[in-house]
Amino acid sequence: MKPKQNQHPLKYSIYSLIAVVAAMIFFFPIYWAFSTSLRNPLDTFTVSGFGIPFLNFEPTLTNWVDQLATEEARKAVYNSTVIAVFASILALALGIPAAYALARFRFKTISNKDLTIWFLSQRVLPPVATVVPFYLIMQFLNLLDTQLALILINATFVLPFVVVIVRQTFLDLPIELEEAAFMDGARNYGAFLRVALPLAAPAIAATGLIMFAFTWNEFLFAITLSSKEVITIPIHMAGAVDTRGVQFWFMAVRAMIAMIPPVLIALLAQRYIVQGLTLGAVKG
Amino acid sequence: MKTHRNTKARFVFLLPAAVWVLTFTIFPLVYSLYLSVHKVETKMNVSREKVPMLDASGNPVLDAKGNPRTKIKINREKISTWTNIGFTNFKRLAEDPQVHSAIKVTSIFVLVAVPSQLVLGILLALLFNQRLWARSFLRAVMLLPIFATPLAVGYLFFTIFYEEGGPLGFLGVPFLSHPDWALFSVILVDIWQWTPFCFLVFLAALQGIPNELMEAAKMESKSKWGLFANIIFPMLTPTIVIVLLLRLAEAIKLFDIPFALTGGGPGVATQSMSFLAFRTGLRYFDLGYASAMSYCLLIIVMIIVTLFFRKLRQSYA
């Protein structure tokens, strides 16, 4: 169903106005953090109006500079990046071949459909149900407070996205291309590596971004398995509430640092979000 | 593709991921079940002993009289004792007022937040399915909250709900200090974060309704409401069911937002089931009891999820 082309001008104006107000409501909290991050700490609660920089207060970059100068902040960005990148790569390495198998081969003992659903089912598993055993396992393996522990666990929890999105992409590829590769003497691996994989590259890139965002945002396992070395951005943020109360100006900077990458990803990977987040039940 | 596709190669493709998932989900879940029928007590044994002081090359350091000098070494040893106590943890759950409160908090949260997100999502999708000024730009702005770090969102709203001087301070509402309002605030934040997702999915579903069908329907039904009730809503129903089940399964795990926004308080007014299980297990280290708690949560989620996957299976067919 496409939007109608001819519409009453009054209706058009009213609807547009409601849409603008709705968008402003969803934008306001992010804007407020941005505005707070530019304020002199003394101005935090005294700005007038909507706290518009230059108009309602004199903006300053001090909070940003002070925050980014601390070693913990840089460490948090570094840890979050390393964990998110490697968890995504690991999940892609495991998930792409599995997605290909589910799209192109036929399994007999357990049907492809049931196998797919089994892969997806861990997405909805409550993380808190595995947090205690993971804590004990990582303690036993001496992996508490390491990047490796968080990489392994996050890779597991984002794996379903690869299976959902990449499997569907392989299914949508014309099978004739791979058949042609077989005619030319390619084996299964050749058809997969040289034909299917390059064609699925855009979907794979989008999946990688979505997984990066999810790992970047993950908090429960991070706070459970890390104590002082492997501080991620969300843990760093939780640390802004200290004995002196909440330092709103630093909090705002940290919240912005945390949110900028995943929010950009949401805009870039739009097409795949519907498909990925509904586990393939709705096509985007 | 008949001949090549039944080779053993299919296992090479599938097995790494399958083994990985088995190891990282089934094993912890079995372990957790085992934990839930145990009482785990961790004691720290501290003992002191005198050890000779050594210099850099490993020789004992002597004092003025020629006797080896000693220092006191403190040995800390963690001793965990596991006692099988059968279903005592589960019985304790049934009688624990904290658990009752957490169930109540989670239920109210889920029953208010999820339907609100669905209704708002549908309304916004219908709105954005019209011709609008700067439609794609506004649509993009609406999507910003989808991937915003939930914990950051919690802290963000902490600054917004701040009662003395926050941007909503003029309302005079005790957003975070009154138990009922605090839960309401948590719900509001979740609505803010998840309505855009519902909106996006419903918009995709609306745009999937064929134009011919809409034209034919317009011929038949006179009123707009009739069009919605007889055509659009039935077409959307499968999507609504999917989004509803998915949101139920997600919302019941509520953790990050109360952690940041209210710390579970005031008192235990916003302490959700996940939050309570986390505190019990990893703050008070009552591991067995926490496992029993999270297992109950797991069972509830599994019931919802089974319904969801039955629907999902149909949509794959």
Question: Could you name the key traits of this structure?
Answer:
heterodimer, A: mainly alpha, MetI-like fold, two-stranded antiparallel ribbon, 70% helix, B: mainly alpha, 2 domains, 11 helices, 63% helix
Can you give me a brief rundown of this structure?
The complex is a heterodimer of chains A (about 280) and B (about 325). The longest helix of chain A has about 35 residues, at about 70-105.
Structural summary, described in words:
- The complex is a heterodimer of chains A (284) and B (317).
- With 284 residues, chain A is an all-alpha fold.
- Chain A folds into two domains: 9-60, no CATH class; 70-277, Orthogonal Bundle (MetI-like fold), CATH 1.10.3720.
- In chain A, 70% of the residues lie in helices and 1% in strands.
- In chain A, strands 1-2 form a two-stranded antiparallel sheet.
- The longest helix of chain A has 34 residues, at 71-104.
- Chain A is globular.
- The mean pLDDT of chain A is 86.
- Chain B has helices at 9-36, 88-95, 97-128, 135-142, 150-161, 179-207, 211-220, 224-251, 256-261, 273-282, 287-316, and strands at residues 38-52, 70-84.
- In chain B, 63% of the residues lie in helices and 9% in strands.
- Chain B folds into two domains: 34-86, no CATH class; 88-316, MetI-like fold.
- Chain B is mainly alpha-helical and 317 residues long.
- Chain B is built from eleven helices and two strands.
- Classes of the chains: A mainly alpha (284), B mainly alpha (317).
Oligomeric grouping of the chains? heterodimer
Determine the CATH superfamily of the largest domain in chain A. MetI-like
Overall shape of chain B: it is elongated
**Which sheet architecture does the biggest sheet of chain A show?**
2 strands, antiparallel
Reading the helices and strands of chain A in chain order gives HHHHHHHHHHHEEHH
Uncertain stretches of chain A:
none
Total separate domains of chain B:
2
Largest sheet of chain B: 2 strands, antiparallel
Number of beta-strand segments of chain B? 2
Could you tell me the strand content of chain B as a percent range? 5-15%
What is the domain tally of chain A?
2
| Secondary-structure class of chain A | mainly alpha
Number of helices of chain B: 11
Rg of chain B to the nearest angstrom? 28 Å
Report, as a whole number of angstroms, the end-to-end distance of chain B: 20 Å
**Count of DSSP E strands of chain A?**
2
DSSP helix fraction of chain A: over 70%
